[in-house]
Each structure stands twice: as structure tokens, then as C-alpha cells.
Design brief:
The structure is a single chain. By secondary structure, the protein is an all-alpha fold. It has one domain. The chain is built from 12 helices and no strands. The longest helix has 33 residues.
């Protein structure tokens, strides 16, 4: 629909739609401020695998490969369609996953470097080997006697917590992006204006594939606390779209963002509501990973215990 200037923003749908995404945003912000210490991220969770015999350098190589592959794919997308692709939620999420893998690569490299840099005394060599093989739930019991475990079992700092929060935000965002594209947008795309190409297909699938494979390897915590960051991420995109629409553009990249229709509040409410099953699906996948793999491979799989929260 055409943008009627000020009249467009004086429609009754505007304040209703604004409240629909602003209320969850404010609730999420308050929850982050008041409940930010409900769980702690341990340093070793950032770069140690959940597989007992898998050396952490393999996670480092995988994260580096994922980042380089996604960066190349994004470069090809920009070359093919121009910088205007960043107007879409898909590219926002794709870049966020790249940020996760960039942080993961740096932190994994630092963890491996610290591991090889340490030169324990001869009587500590066995303790170092045990550290990479033991169940993470045994770390607490070793804190008093094992200085190596103390070093690696400390709470993560700013960058470690940032990586943890970006990881959980990516999880919900990639599920939302790919489900909306494959199940809602693609079936109704018609005409010569759109063609599903290999590049477009990869942009809407490899983000989830790379993240799921990383989840199968890492020992990062995954809790419902991350839903708040997922909500803030989507709210930031909607605010960006409203600002761009008011200042520069007269069309919406997604038809369900259009506010000049009587159905707009229902669309916005549906978008807000779908965040729960999208994030919940990834929570369920992580739980299945922990429960099934620990039973199928009890000698190889390490089940991570989430501090101060229910186990995921």
C-alpha cells in the first residue's frame, strides 16, 4: 500500500502494533536487568567439546571453517543482489551467526593456546589429561585439589558471556528465519520477480546447519534465559524497519510487517507469539541431545550440568 506520509502513521493499527512488540521488549529488558545472575557460564564450556575424546582444536577448526564459509556466502549474496540485502531479517540473522562463529573461533583459539601454554609439573600431567576427559559435573569436586581445573572452571568474562548470549539468540533467530522462509514465504512466492536459486537456498538453510553442528559438538549451556535476547533481536529489527519506512522506503520487505491493513495487529501478535515455539524447538533439540546421546554413548558423551538452573 502507498505511504500517505503522516496519515499513514496516524492509523489505529500503529499504536496497537507498537504495543504488541514493545511490551515483550520492555519485559525482556527488565528480566535481563533483574535476573542476569540466574546462571553462570564457565570458561571451559566455551571451547571444550561435549565429546570426551574430541580435542578442542577440532572445534576451533570447525568454527573457523563455518565463519569463512558463511563470510564467502554472504559476499556472494552482496555481489549478486547488492548491499540492499541487509534490509532483510535473513541477512541480519546470517551476520549474527557469523558473529557467533567469529567469537567462537577467537575464544577457542585462546582456550587451546592456554591449554598448550601451561606446562604443569610432572605430577600434574595426569590431572591435565583427566580435565579434558572428565564429566563437567565433577569439576566442583576437584576445585580444592586441582589448580588446573580451577583455572579453566572459572566464570566466563564479558566476551565469554557475550558469546553465550549470541549463541542462544542465534538459535531462535535461525529457526524463525528458516521456518518463515520455507513454510510461509516460499510457498506463496510466484511470478518472475522471484526465483529460488542455490544461493538463496543456502542463505536460508546453512545458517541452521552450521549452528546445529556446532551444538552437537560444543558444551555450551542453553537455557530459556536466552529467549529474552532473541526477543530483543527481533524487536530491534522491527524498530529498524519502522524507522526506515518512515524515512526512506515506501514498502515492507515482508508483507506481514505492513501496518496499513485491518489484519496488521493479528500479524504482529502472531509474529510475537511464534518466538516461543521457535526458541522452544531449539531448547528441545538440546535436551534431546543431552538425554539421548548420554544414553547411547555413556563412555564418550559428557552431559553438561547448567549452574543454578534446571538442566537443559
Amino acid at each position: 500500500m502507498e505511504d500517505g506520509g503522516l496519515e499513514y502513521w496516524l492509523r489505529w493499527q500503529v499504536p496497537v502494533c507498537a504495543l504488541i512488540f514493545l511490551i515483550p521488549t520492555l519485559v525482556s529488558l527488565r528480566f535481563i536487568v533483574t535476573k542476569n545472575n540466574t546462571h553462570t557460564t564457565k570458561t571451559q564450556h566455551l571451547w571444550i567439546s561435549c565429546w570426551r575424546n574430541l580435542h578442542p582444536s577440532w572445534i576451533l577448526l570447525y568454527r573457523l571453517f563455518s565463519f569463512v564459509s558463511m563470510a564467502y556466502l554472504l559476499y556472494q549474496t552482496v555481489i549478486a543482489f547488492g548491499p540492499f540485502v541487509f534490509y532483510f531479517y535473513t541477512q541480519w540473522t546470517f551476520c549474527l551467526v557469523m558473529v557467533y562463529f567469529a567469537l567462537g573461533t577467537i575464544i577457542s583459539a585462546h582456550g587451546c593456546w592456554m591449554h598448550f601454554k601451561e606446562r604443569p609439573l610432572p605430577n600434574q600431567n595426569q590431572e591435565r589429561d583427566k580435565f579434558l576427559k572428565k564429566d563437567s559435573s565433577s569439576f566442583k569436586d576437584n576445585e580444592a585439589s586441582n589448580s588446573i581445573n580451577l583455572q579453566f572452571n572459572q566464570e566466563a568474562g564479558f566476551w565469554g558471556n557475550l558469546m553465550q548470549n549470541v549463541y542462544q539468540t542465534c538459535a531462535g533467530a535461525v529457526v524463525l528465519t528458516d521456518l518463515v522462509f520455507w513454510c510461509l514465504l516460499l510457498p506463496f512466492q510466484s511470478g518472475d520477480g522471484f526465483k529460488l536459486t542455490l544461493l538463496i537456498g543456502c542463505m536460508h538453510s546453512l545458517n541452521a546447519v552450521f549452528l546445529l553442528l556446532d551444538s552437537a559438538l560444543n558444551s555450551l549451556q542453553f537455557t530459556w534465559h536466552g529467549l529474552t535476547y532473541f526477543v530483543l533481536w527481533s524487536a530491534a529489527y522491527i524498530i529498524f524497519q519502522w524507522v526506515m519506512h518512515a524515512c526512506c522506503f515506501t514498502w515492507w520487505p515482508y508483507p506481514f510487517l505492513e501496518i496499513a491493513t485491518p489484519w496488521a495487529p493479528m500479524w504482529y501478535f502472531g509474529i510475537a507469539l511464534v518466538h516461543l515455539p521457535c526458541y522452544g524447538l531449539y531448547v528441545w533439540l538440546v535436551k534431546v541431545k543431552a538425554s539421548m546421546l548420554s544414553k547411547m554413548f555413556p563412555g564418550a558423551f559428557i552431559r553438561v550440568v547448567v549452574s543454578n538452573e534446571k538442566q537443559m
